[in-house]
Amino acid sequence: MNRQRLSLWWFIGTLAFALLSMLVPLPGVLEPFKPYWPALFLLYWSLESEDRVSLGLAFAIGLVADLLNGVVLGEQALRLCALVFIALRFRSRLRFFPMWQQTLAVLALLLNDRILLLIVRVLAGASLPPASWWISPFVGAALWPFLFLLLDDLRMRLRIQ
Amino acid sequence: MARARDESSPLFAGNAAGTLRLIFYLALAVVLMVLDQRNGWLWRLRYGAAAVIEPVYRLAGLPAIGVRSMSVAFADRQHLTEQNQRLREDLLLANAKLNRMSAVAEQNQRLKELLDTQHSLELNVQLARVIGVDMGAYRYQLTLNVGARDGVKPGQPVIDAHGVMGQVKEVLPTTSVVMLVTDPAHAIPVVIERSGLRTVAYGSRDGQLTLPSIPLAADVRVGDRLLTSGLGGRFPPGFPVGEVRSVAPADTGMFQVAQAQPAADIDRSEDVLLLHDQAEPDGPPAPVKPMGPPAELTPGTATPVTPSGKPGAASVTKPSAPAPATTSGVPR
After folding, report:
1. Do β-strands B271-275 and B157-159 pair in parallel, antiparallel, or remain unpaired?
2. Which residue of A has its CA nearest to B176?
3. Could you report the predicted ipTM of this complex, rounded to two decimals?
4. Fewest CB atoms within 10 Å of the CB: B6, B203, B225, B305?
């Protein structure tokens, strides 16, 4: 019981941490390199514990992120829903990919996410972003193996599901 | 056993229910976006949820504060001494300039009184600190640590020591969001200091300002300073906005296009000033509200007639009646 509660808190804590790190600014030079943290953490959890992550959860987290970011309500909800849907759909295959293949898949997912964001922004009337805007998915994919191994290791140490 | 597991998580999950739910959620998100774009729900929701959102902002701003204080803590003594020296010199210079200006300002004031205009050189400002929060949206926004409780209102101009930074876009109870002049959706009416040409400066994607519609015959050179013109009634006149960096004919050949560098330190400012007095509105003065007898007379006439109930009501209305007069009188 206690362990279950701990694992639930760990799950919530990582997601809250992801939202918080989305808000933490980087120095101006590093700004385009910032990965989209909520997507990475949600991907990890949708691969590792399928029963907790659902489209509803992705939608809710997206709404909270929108509320914090204050751009358009529903934008990140849409992106995260699409991301989690694809991840859950191909979960069984993604899980048994070797790490480099998994990283490539994550890159594809993050690029897809950026394209979705671009479509939403352009439809909302924003101007096209600069070229450096496309760096972020690559950084996210490059960080993926480390994030995955770190979270897996922490989970093993805490002995939680 | 293996078969059962296969069924619970099939390798090629093609269940229609999942797709349906995806479509449902995507449609919901799109509907939310459209409604929000139309009605501005998000900001009302944000205002309601401010008790949760603002602590998160403060928390997210902590690393930036930490880095800042670390850089002070680990900066070497010589660097700090140099900085201190430089600031002293700046202060001395600024004070000297101010002293010289004060005489001129006084003269200006007298002349203006003679001309019976009400423009004033005094500033009514409020100091605000920037919270380091990344609000997405390609960094055209700042978050400040003052909000509705400190009397901040949407539309207030924000300046720093060097020039105009932007205007307050949305206000939460104790934080507010500033739209920068470099936001592509922002436009500010400017006047070119040297030639007096009035035009409009738009934000552009590369953190600069664009002046897209300067007449071909107009006199604009690289190095010209742009000041706020005060037209439009949002920014008071005379604040530096930027400096022209390049002038070229537009693609259409009908206009000249100039690029300008913002005067304010948009990326580096930590403390900013919120202007409280808005620019005087141009055009005809607002119509005077039809009033009954003067407010000063009502309590005097009311008290003798009904000594029991009316004085309370009169004493409530009395302070509220002169209040607009004093507040509108202070910024002038």
Report:
1. antiparallel
2. A70
3. 0.82
4. B305
